[in-house]
Amino acid sequence: MSRFWSETTRGLSPYVPGEQPRVANLIKLNTNEHPLAPSQLALAALADVTADSLRRYPDPDATRLREAIAASEGLAAEQVFVGNGSDEVLGHVFQALLKQTQPLVVPDVSYSFYPVWAQLYDVHLAVTPLADDFSIDLAALCASTGPIIIANPNAPTGIALSLEAVATLLRSNPDRLVVVDEAYFGFGAATAAALINQFDNLLVTRTLSKSHALAGLRVGYALGQAPLIAGLTRVKDSFNSYPLDAVAQAVALAAIEDQPWFEQASQIVVDNRAGLVAGLVQLGFQVLPSSANFVFTEHATLPGEALFTALRARHILVRRWSKPRIDNFLRITVGSADECAQLLKVLAELVDA
Length: 353
Hints:
alpha/beta, Aspartate Aminotransferase, domain 2, five-stranded mixed sheet, three-stranded antiparallel sheet, 12 strands
């Protein structure tokens, strides 16, 4: 610990990302990366990056990318904010919009970065338990008074709220902001983007990491009515006027415009998920209903920690948390059909051992 650290730095408990090891023959199902290669149009845009575009500063407003995202959602460009991954976008959201007089309401089992941002930006939290079946307790959220942030589908459970449920939440208190984190957009959950023009208290955040197989590019965005986006832009321009480089803007633009790739790739993940779930159930696992590119599961008799350790010893990485209510669960990324088959084969051996 450096003697020059500020008190804020000393008190932080940073987010711990999933492992990114470099091991031969690794089956990596721990960080929810897409099993397919990105769009060929996106890869072509990467190859077409010019020296001049690298020599000069990028467009600070990412105008073409924001216009493309807006067009894909039936919105206007001033309703779109882009940033260096949805984590940066969400960091700006906490600073610009969620530091209110009322505590921020979060589910007790959700994205574990939310408490980190709250600590960093001095945002007080009010934690609301999930229901017994691990679904979002809609009635409890509606009865709360402060701003709300939820992942939809939720992470790490994978369970999604319906569009009608999100609308009910928005109507329950029009004077508080509801942030819907759609990091796992595209795999079955209805997007709340359709409600943006109806509700000025809604902000939707997304990333291209999962939906478009671009985790290495770091592009995220937010959708909301113009005053919310203007608030995010004020914070962005007080922090980093050029968050998206020229390469990221060009590749992300091509990826957004390749709708056929997105639809086909998303369907492959959905199909692979169905096969994985069926295989897990056959082996005695309980699997929560997932609308994401992962499943959340526990075995009827085998402890989650033992399974996690045994899989890791066989070069198969999944994710696990030592946290009440979910410490027996494993979160397993939906990989390729071959990866899912290999995982199920090893799990069958462990179950029969």
